[in-house]
Specification:
Blueprint lengths: L1 E5 L3 H13 L5 E5 L11 E3 L4 H14 L2 H12 L3 H16 L11 H23 L3 E2 L5 E5 L6 H11 L5 E5 L4 E5 L4 E4 L24 H17 L7 H7 L15
Parallel strand pairs: 1-2, 1-3, 5-6
Antiparallel strand pairs: 4-5, 6-7, 7-8
Helix pairs in contact: 1-2, 1-4, 3-5, 4-5, 5-6
């Protein structure tokens, strides 16, 4: 059994699939470069990313599976889980080795796995769109620091660009150290040092942004907390049901959850 080492990108995975068919190597384990420690180097093959090869594989998949399955393929990649990447590889082998469409053949383990991964990533996308909250900075930038389980920023960009077209905003993923910034015209991918921002997001700096909060932001925070307290009926709280709809890991984004 061989191990393919790739760069952790979508292009890299597609190139691993290309190589598997090029050299008829189907009994393969995929591993990203950051997970290479502990592998037997004698069994490893480093697969370079090649746009031409990746495009051939992607167009081949497009011809053999539905648009929904292609979407699930991309969502699964964004899960960033080694097992998910292995499932993508095995799924692709099954697709290309079959003479008929197999993207709904849920009796085959990789096909079912892709659907399950896509569902998990899709759920995280939906929750990020629902629970992301912004803080207004002194220079008018609206900032949100997030920690999603999966790499969903590429999936939520369209939602926020459509919803907040009249203000500059930055959604920054603290785990993956990149963000999406909207400048009133288009979005950009940015990088900054979140360690420069304290836990209360009071002050910090980056290449092009001031992230010191606007003084009115503290007032709005307090007004919202007061409103939440006034409409909240503690005697009718059903915390078990509440956590089912709003898991605790999302509470950090919500001002009302910071109420003592």
């Amino acid at each position: 059994m061989k191990t393919y080492i790739f760069d952790g990108t979508m292009t890299g995975i597609l190139c691993c699939i290309f190589r598997a068919f090029q050299f008829k190597e189907f009994d393969v384990i995929l591993s990203a470069e950051q997970n290479v420690q502990g592998l037997l180097l004698g069994e490893c093959i480093f697969v370079s990313s090649n746009d031409a090869q990746a495009n051939r594989v992607w167009h081949g998949l497009s011809a053999k599976i539905s648009s929904t399955a292609l979407r699930n393929f991309y969502f699964t990649f964004l899960s960033e889980q080694p097992q998910a990447w292995q499932d993508l590889f095995n799924f692709s082998l099954y697709v290309f080795q079959s003479k008929h469409k197999v993207d709904k053949d849920y009796g085959h383990a990789p096909v079912l796995a892709i659907a399950q991964w896509a569902k998990k990533v899709g759920r995280e996308k939906h929750r990020m769109e629902a629970f992301v909250r912004f803080k207004k900075c002194k220079d008018g930038l609206f900032l949100s620091l997030v920690r999603p389980d999966f790499n969903v920023l590429p999936l939520i960009e369209r939602h926020f660009k459509s919803r907040y077209q009249d203000q500059r905003w930055l959604i920054y993923d603290e785990i993956r150290n990149f963000g999406i910034y909207y400048d009133l015209c288009k979005t950009h991918q940015v990088h900054m040092n979140v360690l420069e921002i304290d836990e209360t997001i009071k002050i910090g700096s980056s290449q092009h942004f001031s992230v010191e909060l606007d003084q009115e932001e503290y007032l709005y925070d307090q007004l919202w907390k007061d409103y939440f307290n006034s409409v909240n009926i503690r005697e009718r709280q059903n915390m078990k049901l509440h956590i089912q709809y709003v898991p605790k890991r999302y509470w950090r984004y919500m001002n009302e959850k910071m109420v003592e």
